[in-house]
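Q: You know discrete backbone vocabularies at least as well as I do. I have my own habits and do not want them to colour yours. No explanation is needed for now; the record alone will do.
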Amino acid sequence: MIQCNMHGAPHSREQNDTFVGKLAKSPTFAKEPRQLQFEADINRLFLYTSYNRVGKDAEEADVEEIINMASKAELADQERQVQENIHTQITNFCTSMDEILLPDSKSHDEPLGSSQKTDTTPRRSGLSLAIGRTTPANKNLDVPETKQLTFTEASQRLKDLMGYTLELKPSQIQHEQAGQGLFIDGEADVGSVIALYPGVIYSPAYYRYIPGYPRVDARNPYLITRYDGTVINAQPWGTGGDTREPWGQPSVYRSNPGQPPSETGSDRVWKMLSKPLEGSRLASNGEILERRNPLALAHFANHPATGMEPNVMVCPYDFPLNEKDMRAYIPNIIFGGIEEVKMKRFGSFWFKSGGVSSDGQTEGPIMKSLALVATRLLRNEEVYLNYRLSNSKRRPSWYTPVDEEEDRRRWS
């Protein structure tokens, strides 16, 4: 059962599963189990993050109002509120990181570009290799001056400010593939943003540029997919670093770097659909990312073993790219640049669509990232995430489903 630190009891896991299960079997919803699971997830995130926003000392009436809204609000309204709740937390995190890393004379409200800068030539790193970078897009990217702190020092100072940070230690899960586990050092309340999923972001238009395509997950356990089809590859990020670094975009498309293109029927269809994009130029603007990001370790969260329960869940977070002062702390690069090619899904295929939102308004540039949100109070313990691996494919021997029906609905 989900243990929420709330005055009013939220939906328990058993109640939620029973409700979703009944709807999934009804004729009305049977054709859209994936959408149904998405709505159930957003509903839970609405409850958790809204409670976190009102705080531990919230009045009983405030908690009851949140629960009431969760049962009545439209999906779109709940999504917007979740985004706002998450963005507020990440804004506070970025403010704390500014306080830790920027010179004492700087403030979060003062543009980063106005600080003393270091003229730095980008070096070839894991992330630049993953996005197919061959030559620097800008040989003189300016890196704002920061304090000379190591990753470990920055992490400890974040704990002093926020009450928690993250660390990597041998996992408590007893199987050889568990390796390093993600641990929270300190205490975080339910609904807190625990970690950010770093790495290279691929929209469906660029799937075939993911290293190893089409068998992208054969040697890479650090891939994750959002409900909207966006894939994030965290492998190049590793465990972070000790500097603020310039990261560039690839200047030209390179289909399937390091491996000849496959000629399967699926690949031929993709080649046909993507042909207008081949040879076009990618954005060449550099990105400066803070590698001393203590929360950019979500890819080390393990799946719970038998008898264990997950204590975080995935939350989609659309970072508004106009938030320039926060950009360095969002540990992602968009493959193909910010001019995203919008796609729509029809069955198992993705097609290009228009560039406006459902209400006809042009959308501002966003980065489709992911965060891990606490589903209960966490205190000095390992972080466990339900991987929800597809039950239509062979799964690893160590994988025990938390909820087989959720897995099925997620990948239907």
